[in-house]
Amino acid sequence: MLVIDAEQIHQTLNFPKLISALKETFSKPAGMPQRQVFSLDESSSHSDAFAVLPSWNEQTIAVKAFTYFPNNPSKSSDLESLYSKIMIFDRKTGIPQALVDGTSVTYWRTAAISALGSDFLAREDATKLLVCGTGRLASFMALAHASVRPITEIQIWGRNPKSALKIVDIVKTNRPELDVQVCDNLESAVRNADIISCATGSPSPLFDGDWVQEGTHTDFVGNHNHDRRECDTKLILKSDVYVDSKINVFAEAGEILIPVAEGLYDTNEVKGELSQLCDHRLKGRTDDKQITLFKTVGTALADLVGAQIAFAEINQSK
């Protein structure tokens, strides 16, 4: 059985290949039960947590397990808030194939799924991207979206301008031809963006939904809690909403659940999920004036695809 570390993941994955594989996988039948997230402190809904995400397709069986300890960085600079591993098995024989670093796969597949959503939902001529967030995922989000649309301008917004500048430098290093800047006026950037991609830990909406203009595609990946959200109810109500997985989003995402609790929205109003876009049961964007919104909380099947690609390439090169 191979052990695949983070460096090997970064060497083997790229967005065109990963996004294409995700599109193909989500267009076919697969098994993906609801992911199980366990709070390790019942007195708090935002405590340390442990999660298990199983899935399978025609080739591979996978299970990702991760721990989320949000206070770890404050305890020590050597500690991460998230640790994750993926185990994959051969679908035909059940033989274990690899133990894969899940944290690095999560960065790649989260950004790739968002970009795949943009490929269906953003305007074909989208050139201006706003990324809200300055964590480790932010540069992946920018580069992924720029791989599916003719992006020429990227603004990075965060509450810490120094952190935003670091993301700018990473994106510029990978795509020097792009105009990448720190965003110093969030309202102006939201009003002018063609695509807005948000990956933050914010417990409350990042901007006023009224700022979002006709034709914009918005994307929210940062929140996994039923009582928190990155966008407000106004934006949900004015958007055609799609999700990566209804069973997971309807269990965890405050972006949807808070408007439902307010009595202003119903889950039946969600247009569809990623698999329906990939197998062409749904078309996605139908005109240039639509405001579209894609909410993701992460799926085990996307983890499977990332681990599967890395295993295939590394195993072949041996």
From TrEMBL:
<dbReference type="InterPro" id="IPR036291">
    <property type="entry name" value="NAD(P)-bd_dom_sf"/>
</dbReference>
<dbReference type="GO" id="GO:0016491">
    <property type="term" value="F:oxidoreductase activity"/>
</dbReference>
<dbReference type="GO" id="GO:0008473">
    <property type="term" value="F:ornithine cyclodeaminase activity"/>
</dbReference>
<dbReference type="Pfam" id="PF02423">
    <property type="entry name" value="OCD_Mu_crystall"/>
</dbReference>
<dbReference type="GO" id="GO:0005737">
    <property type="term" value="C:cytoplasm"/>
</dbReference>
<dbReference type="InterPro" id="IPR003462">
    <property type="entry name" value="ODC_Mu_crystall"/>
</dbReference>
<comment type="similarity">
    <text>Belongs to the ornithine cyclodeaminase/mu-crystallin family.</text>
</comment>
<protein>
    <submittedName>
        <fullName>Ornithine cyclodeaminase</fullName>
        <ecNumber>4.3.1.12</ecNumber>
    </submittedName>
</protein>
<dbReference type="GO" id="GO:0019752">
    <property type="term" value="P:carboxylic acid metabolic process"/>
</dbReference>
<dbReference type="InterPro" id="IPR023401">
    <property type="entry name" value="ODC_N"/>
</dbReference>
<keyword id="KW-0456">Lyase</keyword>
